[in-house]
Amino acid sequence: MIFRQLFDSTSGTYSYLLASRRGGEALFVDPVREQMPAYLQLLTELDVRLVHALDTHTHADHVTALGALRDVTQCRTVMGEFSRADCVDHYLSDDETLDVDGIRLRAIYTPGHTNESFSYWIGGPQPAVLTGDVLLIRGTGRTDFQGGDAGASWDSITQRLFPLGDETLVYPGHDYKGWTCSTIEEERRFNPRLAGRTRAEYIDIMANLNLPDPKMMDVAVPANLACGQPEGRD
Amino acid sequence: MIFRQLFDSTSGTYSYLLASRRGGEALFVDPVREQMPAYLQLLTELDVRLVHALDTHTHADHVTALGALRDVTQCRTVMGEFSRADCVDHYLSDDETLDVDGIRLRAIYTPGHTNESFSYWIGGPQPAVLTGDVLLIRGTGRTDFQGGDAGASWDSITQRLFPLGDETLVYPGHDYKGWTCSTIEEERRFNPRLAGRTRAEYIDIMANLNLPDPKMMDVAVPANLACGQPEGRD
């Protein structure tokens, strides 16, 4: 399997390209609209056919490339079943599996950062989970807007992600310190918001982060509800 | 095997931590001094014992953490045999192999970016090569100082790296556009400085890049000739 992690430095976003093999079919997870030229170059050079473009949730810090990728590649746009983006072609149910050309991706409903956030588990010899913003490396996504809920975040992480197993690689939607991946074991044992904490303590931590709104929020959220194309398809 | 790519955003540098397993022995390649707190955290949390810290070459854009890592972990500092850094504990010869607790790393002399640059090939089910600055993703390292030589760069890439095989993953010392890895096949076929070019054309391209000197060069090179500790060991 081809697995590529790509970083958008403007928003600190990780996007993921998965393909079965050169010449095979591919998926994109959490693509960023400004990176479209790079994505099209990579799809061409790897000689892969994009069949699905997925977001883990409605992002507030960057504009998605879902619609732009669909326009160019005719891929399906995909989100979790509680997304309010009516531009999406397919809504994944909790525990639904996408099997694409040898890539097995399972959707896991993990609300908390938003009320419609999903994580995507990737099977294979080295299982991995793309956690979007619910679980970050030694951190977690804020829970103070878009239906965010700290209790739901705790439950998603501890009841849905931790049971995936200690060896599972964790690939987040963001990292701001240059770390590219982690494991469930590391986050269970060393994430400072989770390790040794109670659910009540976590809720208290998240209630007191006092973060400013994302700079792009007022633009990004409405744009992303239209798959990144509020002006209509290109 | 544990493999971690870490990014220093200030200098755009990728560093690599390899370890056999939790509780096992580890290597660092191209560590950045400013990232020491993160490295020590990760070594502790992964419960690995650092036995070697290697640089691919004498960097001109950041200060190495080799000396600082040695001070804290008692690891050996390692560079290629043509390094002028007399602080180094072990100088690898061309084709010399380090076997550490199940990790097999082979040193490949790849001059061109500097006259003492080595690449490090990592064996295993998915071979990979850490190319430092001689081969970048869709680019190559500049060849205009520190004994750089465009012809040597061409020869290193085409005669030492390309023969590693198309499936070999390429992990570079830098990327400035958010790409994290590549393959030998991609660079052979799609690197714009190499694909379809002759050696003479490559030399001409490299002679006309007209790049400014790295901002940190006057500080970084002398510091790195002392393993990042021009003031003496901490």
From TrEMBL, chains A, B:
GO terms for molecular function: hydrolase activity; metal ion binding; sulfur dioxygenase activity. The keyword Metal-binding applies. Signal peptide: none annotated. It holds the Pfam family Lactamase_B. It comes from the Bacteria. SUPFAM superfamilies: Metallo-hydrolase/oxidoreductase. Keywords: Hydrolase, Metal-binding. CDD domains: POD-like_MBL-fold. GO terms for biological process: glutathione metabolic process; hydrogen sulfide metabolic process. InterPro entries: Metallo-B-lactamas (IPR001279), Mito_Persulfide_Diox (IPR051682), POD-like_MBL-fold (IPR044528), RibonucZ/Hydroxyglut_hydro (IPR036866). Residues 12-174 form the Metallo-beta-lactamase domain. This is Zn-dependent hydrolase. It comes from Abyssibacter profundi.
